[in-house]
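Researcher: Good morning. I'm working through a list of sequences from a screen, and I'd like to move beyond sequence-only analysis. For each chain I'm collecting a predicted structure so we can compare shapes side by side. This is the next one on the list. No need for commentary yet; just the structure.
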Amino acid sequence: MHIKTFVAATVGLGLVTLSACGAESSGTSSAADSRTVTLVSHDSWAVSKNVLADFEKKSGYKVKVLTDGDAGQAVNKAILTKDNPQGDVFFGVDNTLLSRALDNGLFQSYEAKGLDRVGGAYQLDSGKHRVTPVDYGDICVNYDKKYFADHKLAPPTSYDDLIKPAYKNLLVTENASTSSPGLGFVLGTAAKYGDDGWADYWKKLKANGVKVVDGWEQAYNEEFSGSAGGRKAGADRPLVVSYASSPPAEVIYGDPRPSTAPTGVATGTCFRQIEFAGLLSNAGNAKGGKALIDFLISQEFQKDMPLNMFVYPVVEGVGVPAEFTAYGPAAKAPETMDPAKIAQHRDQWVKSWTSLVLK
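Model: Good morning. Structure tokens for this chain:
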């Protein structure tokens, strides 16, 4: 999430993307380059080299990856460039932004091979197949265990706790207009407090000193005192909007590796996020794009995904690593919201949130 991405979500530490966005902005495959397929994604995209190499060997396609910021930024850019897209497949649009992508005609229909193995609860566009579910995760507030132990303060467990005086000036979150975890957190509060109550909740959260930054990378790795990056940066916020699967990342990438996770999850602050991939409407290499989407829901990729992007597989029967069970189990009762309701209210909610919190 990994979606920090997190996510995701994705959300791991020390993940290296395969190719950076920048000079390679004209990623559309030409006829002369039909053996290259280009994936456009958010900064948290990651895959094991051997798994990708196996796909390239079996399919005959060379994969080029362009990453472009947090998921919200990446989706917005993909919409702006849809007539002359950077690539063939976009990965990382989630349920919070799905209707924006679909309404703007970002994707063409493709029913992926193996889709029958993906749980029905994740197939939010099942009738038209413009997107394929790839993973899910839970956007939740994480806390720095050491800070709360040192201050002899119980960590928060719910949305209600976050507006209490004891937690003043402790939380950092992401901008809902540019970040998918930031938007997911806002939607979680809307699901919790309803159409009439969420804005009042944010007024209280602002009065209690919530800090807002552009994206997950900055919030988690620069502002959050519980992360390895935050500790190096001298961060002073012991609460951050991240993912339920962030604690396992802190263990797995810890140097030295800790015996227990240094961070915990406020389980009453979670919102379920589902990430999708789609074949871009004007993809230069649609055939290669279809093969790549098939790969994303293959057993091989789905098994590889949790320890790279710290998200959960959507293909039935694919297990998760022991570290997830021990340090980052999925939320038992996350907030959810019908995609139609998100589509109806999202843009107005973000506009209202911006006025309330950023001005």
